[in-house]
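Reminder: ligand-aware prediction takes two inputs, not one.
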Amino acid sequence: MNVSLKKVITQLRENKQYFSTPCYVYSIEDVANNYKKLKGDLGTSLIYSLKANSCLDLILRCGHIFEDGVEIASIGELNLLPRGQVFRYINNPSADKKFLRSAVSSNSVLVVDNLSQLGLIKEVQVKRSINPLVLRLNHSILDKFGVIPGRVRSDHFGLSWGDALAALDICKKNHLTVAGFHIFRGSYSFIKLANITAQAALHITKSFESALGYPIAFVNLGGGIESHWQNQKFEFSRYRSLLSEFPSYIQIAHESGRAIMETAGYFVTKVRYVKWINKTQYGICDGGMAQNFLLAKTEQTFRRLQEPIIVRKGIVVDSGDTANCGYLVGTSCNRDDVIGKVMGKEIEPEDLAIFCNCGAYNASYTLAHFLRLPPAKSYLME
Ligand SMILES: *Cc1c(COP(=O)(O)O)cnc(C)c1O
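Here is what comes back for the chain with pyridoxal-5'-phosphate:
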């Protein structure tokens, strides 16, 4: 059992009166360690992708950890962060003029998704000075420069190569400085695609510089790093030496949400009632998919439910010799509101179920308004 899980259990036992369930518990130390380790492995700047977890208290406490900035995808996220505390990159295909204008006035860097956005930026520029722009490139551009192992899912983000060249031309004519470019090949893509992405990015760097007539300063290679990246077979030292082929005046960055946040968060819900139907035991909890949508695994064709740690009166309940397989269900009256399974033990009312790896997307990807159910609380742990 890892250190922060032990701490969560101790906290729930010793400071019971301060916790109400359902809740998320986040370990600041885990966020800091994940960030530092990942940044060290990559050997580049590391930008935090805020949509993975935008819990305000957590972000405020981690502001100093995210030293290379935060990537923001909505005006809501932009307004969440106090001005001046963390550096921001703004990136969303649908960003409108209002969003772009507030982004500029908060001194953010704009990541341009399409030519229409670039047109709006030209209008904003008349009134204000803006930071050098980053062009987001659609990842299909990379296929021109390397052989892809297998199919990569296509998406609608960023500029096509033709539009990218047009954008460079527009920037030149309108005295908009281009800092560089940004590519993202999707979550979980890193292990498979990082090396060929970097190789292609080297070619793109040259094309950008010759189109612009000046050196670029910034390349964001995306990420798509999974939360347990350290257990994967990937030669980071080889990757870092590939990255050293970029000119030294270029700041190379990666960005990540999941790998920084996932293992730093726990979801805790209390079993309210227990019942049996035929030979199956159900624990009816005070939280479920309305507070943690991802646990219900409705987006997977094969639902592999997580097995939480069960804590009774402060003590972890070990699996015994019973063959019982039970389910934990939530509060939403939805047939799919099954959030976990319990193997080899029976559950009792007042048991706490602690789900690990709930720090990324579990809270932020939950639609909280169904049945007017209460949202989960969030607690921070040093
Ligand atoms: C969502 C997103 C990320 C973060 O993906 P993770 O799998 O959480 O690391 C990074 N970059 C962009 C452009 C994104 O939209």
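The CA atoms of residues 4 and 27 lie 7 Å apart. The first helix runs from residue 3 to 14. We will return to this case in the review session.
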